[in-house]
Amino acid sequence: MQKLRIQGGRRLHGTVRVAGAKNAALPIMAASLLTADPLRLENVPQLADTATMARLLGAMGVAVETTEDGRTTLRAGEIRSVEAPYDTVKTMRAAILVLGPLLAREGAARVSLPGGCAIGARPVDQHLKGLQALGADLHLDQGYIVASRSGRLRGARIVTDMVTVTGTENLMMAAALAEGTTVIENAAREPEIADLAACLNAMGAKIAGAGTDRIEIEGVDRLHGACHRVMPDRIESATFLAAVAATGGEVRLEAAAPATLDAVLEKLREAGAQVETGADWIRLRMDERPAAVNLRTAPHPAFPTDAQAQFMALNCIARGVARISENIFENRFMHVLELQRLGARIDIDGHTAVVHGVEALSGATIMATDLRASASLVIAGLVAQGETIVDRIYHLDRGYEAMETRLAALGAQIERIR
Ligand code: EPZ
């Protein structure tokens, strides 16, 4: 099992080039199923999750060519299989994103129910409810969603019970080839939705309103190939910014998208960081010990749940007391037990964690439990005195390209060990 060894207590300085957004690349790769023409993508992050999606699509018959610089061409000339097997879906829930495209293109899909995951039950009932509204026939068979349609999907007005990111994405992709117009009310407003819509429109779809809570999709008969550049990863950006805000120092993020990070940048300024932005760059400078900041996670444009764990690490060594309310997932505080091993003072009361900032953390061996928790533990290790070993960092590799190499380039003493 791979681990990271970190000698903490060093201020960080330098420049980081932000990678393409994992949570935009995954639905966009699935969108390749909607046409037999090649979909040419740039800025696809080289991650465990994008590799899993490429393998899944490859097993369906999609020709996937990836080059080192993040260029990926996908061509679903003929689809040989409509199945997303349990083994794949259980390791990456985003595999559910092939359901809508397969149903729209092939008229059939057999996708394993994701099952629970570390951060919560994460059901997909809204995906299924929306696809049924579009005319799909769905039933469960031995843990698999078996989907079919008699004739073309038909446009409908869909109101989701709660804001769901991949739910909105699945429905948008299915509706793109439906007969007539679909309206998704209560749609997720995450920037990755707008990025997917931009790619679909480049493929010939007619989607308006992506990025707002009302998306209108006018179905078309077919989609064609396109070229699309995946947007910058806002959560990776938030992670690096929180790390330098915690250690102190200065960092410049390049190839970034500051306009997608308003809530995060506001909290960093509230913590005492100096933050400047340009069209595609963000510069943060932190000279003193951060001030505690209260957080309430909520759908975009509010503070993102995917940055909650990283900002909890920042609050662990801040001046004052922070209240963190996790309102999206029911079990996204697993990093707390590990942070406490480093000396953090955190009390959990249901969906709220109260963090009493301490002067210093001290290194220990800790264990990652999920993707964003692992980033939180790395940040805590960077500020802790002495040596910290973070175990099970395969979680980290799911969502961050060579995190330790990029942190070492900023002056962190961090290395990957067996
Ligand atoms: C996406 O997950 C992201 N993943 C998650 O990022 C992110 O945390 C989440 O959105 C919230 O922003 C990808 O985009 C690949 P949801 P998703 O459907 O779509 C409930 C990361 O770290 N819900 O928006 O699965 C659900 O249980 C990952 O990169 C239902 O009840 O999240 C949750 O409580 C982690 N029924 C809430 O809604 C449904 O049918 C939001 O879930 C769908 C969702």
Please list the strands of the largest sheet in the order they lie side by side: 22-23-1-24
Radius of gyration of CA atoms, rounded to a whole number: 21 Å
Q: Uncertain spans, ≥5 residues at pLDDT below 50?
A: none
Beta-strand portion reads: 25-35%
Distance between the termini: 6 Å
Which structural class best describes the helix and strand composition?
alpha/beta
- Small molecules in complex: ligand EPZ
Subunit arrangement of the protein? single chain
Query: Which descriptor suits the 3D outline?
Result: elongated
For the largest beta-sheet, the strand count, sense and barrel status come to:
4 strands, mixed
The residue fraction in helices comes out at: 25-40%
Q: Total number of β-strand segments?
A: 24
Look at the structure and give the mean pLDDT: 97
Tell me the number of helical segments per DSSP (H or I, 4 or more residues long). 14
Structure explained in plain terms:
Helix 1 runs parallel beside helix 2 and helix 11 packs parallel to helix 12. Strand 4 and strand 5 form a beta hairpin. This protein has helices spanning 22-30, 48-60, 86-91, 99-105, 125-133, 165-175, 191-202, 234-247, 262-270, 308-316, 334-341, 371-383, 394-397, 403-408; strands spanning 3-7, 12-17, 38-42, 63-66, 72-75, 83-84, 108-112, 137-141, 144-148, 157-159, 181-185, 206-208, 214-218, 226-229, 249-254, 274-277, 281-286, 295-296, 321-325, 345-349, 352-356, 365-367, 387-391, 413-417. It is an alpha/beta fold and 418 residues long. A four-stranded mixed β-sheet has the order 22-23-1-24. The chain has a four-stranded mixed β-sheet with strand order 2-15-17-16, covered by helices on one side. The longest helix is centred in the middle third of the chain and has 14 residues, at 234-247. The mean pLDDT is 97. The termini are close together. It is built from 14 helices and 24 strands. It binds ligand EPZ. Ligand EPZ binds next to helix 1, helix 5, helix 6 and helix 12. The site of ligand EPZ has 25 residues, from helix 1, helix 5, helix 6 and helix 12.
